[in-house]
Each structure stands twice: as C-alpha cells, then as structure tokens.
Amino acid sequence: MITIVAKQIIRKDCIEQYHALAKELVEKSRAEEGCISYTSNQSIQDERIHCFIEVWKDQEAIDIHNATEHFTRIVPQFGAMFDGPEVVDLYTESV
Amino acid sequence: MITIVAKQIIRKDCIEQYHALAKELVEKSRAEEGCISYTSNQSIQDERIHCFIEVWKDQEAIDIHNATEHFTRIVPQFGAMFDGPEVVDLYTESV
C-alpha cells in the first residue's frame, strides 16, 4: 500500500469552488479498483489549508489513477487556486 | 472525526530508534477507545521524512490521548531526533 498526502493552501476566494471539484475527485477516485481510501480534508486551524489523504494498492494503481479522465481534468484546475506551493508526499507504513 | 497529520523529519542516525518508539506508540494509541485509525508512515522519496496519520472520534478523544502514559512518555523523546521543525495539522473532512 502507498499513502499519498497532498497538502495545498487554497486562496480564500476559491475554497467553495475547490470543494465542489474535490468532491467529484473523491467520489470518482474511490470508485477506482486500486483505491483503498481517499479523503479531502480542511484544516481546523486555517481554513485555507487542505489535504488529500489517499491510500492506494500499489504504484500501478497510482499510475492508472493519474491517467484517468477525472484526474487529468480536475487536478490541473486546482493550480490556479493555490496560495503557495503544493507538497505531495508518498509514504509506506513504517511499523 | 478529526484527522491529525504530524510530519517529522528524522535524523538518519535516529531512524531505527524512531521506528521502535513509533511502533509502541501506534499499538498503544490504536487500543484507545476514541482512536479510529493510527499509522506511522515513512516517505518513499526521502527516508528521513515520516508522518503519523491519526483519525480520532472527536477533540475529547485527542485530549485523552495527549494525556496518556504512552503519549507523554514517548512523544517528548522524538524531539531530539528531529532534523527540522515538526508540522502538525488537524483536519476535518471537507466533502
């Protein structure tokens, strides 16, 4: 399993639009065969801070995800909403 | 539910010791009543980068967790292993 944490700071005026797109991305990603879990999360401390926490079966599942219609259509739209650089970390469980 | 992502950069010479302590923290935290999930994760891109991803029932469960014997004994020991500031974000699901 591989866990992705993609942390994004979203401009305040874009948060509503971001949530609508994130909702579609979450729903369609969860329906993928290699997706174990997929959530969109908003910080309690700062409403601008968001992250996707995604658990995938393996790298092949991530490669398939990155090539889907919903990923290639929705994810590029997030870029214009960022209020800072996105940080994407890929993890495996360490213990 | 509240999700905590606690991201830590661990000195290379401390990684083995960190994993041993993280293992105990994970096991004991998972046994708490308000804990929904708790994982310790190591970056695929940089072996020094780790994060705990924790899902708790509510803030009260986090407060109880933060006062447990295992939390108050183990977590302070991580500080000496850090190779940079820890970043702790608390999230709720946004969609």
List the helices and strands and how they pair.
2 copies of one chain form a homodimer.
Chain A: E1 2-9, H1 15-30, E2 35-43, E3 49-56, H2 59-66, H3 69-78, E4 87-93
Antiparallel strand pairs in A: 1-3, 1-4, 2-3
Helix pairs in contact in A: 1-3
Report on this model:
- The structure is a homodimer of 95-residue chains.
- The first copy, chain A, has 95 residues and is α+β, with helices and mostly antiparallel strands.
- Chain A contains three helices and four strands.
- The first copy, chain A, has helices at 15-30, 59-66, 69-78; strands spanning 2-9, 35-43, 49-56, 87-93.
- Chain A has a four-stranded antiparallel β-sheet with strand order 2-3-1-4.
- The longest helix of chain A is centred in the first third of the chain and has 16 residues, at 15-30.
- The A-B interface holds A 2-3, 5, 7, 19, 22-23, 26, 39-45, 49-51, 53, 89-95 and B 2-3, 5, 7, 19, 22-23, 26, 39-45, 49-51, 53, 89-95.
Labels describing this entry:
34% strand, 95 residues, homodimer
Brief description of this entry?
With 95 residues, chain A is α+β, with helices and mostly antiparallel strands. Chain A is globular.
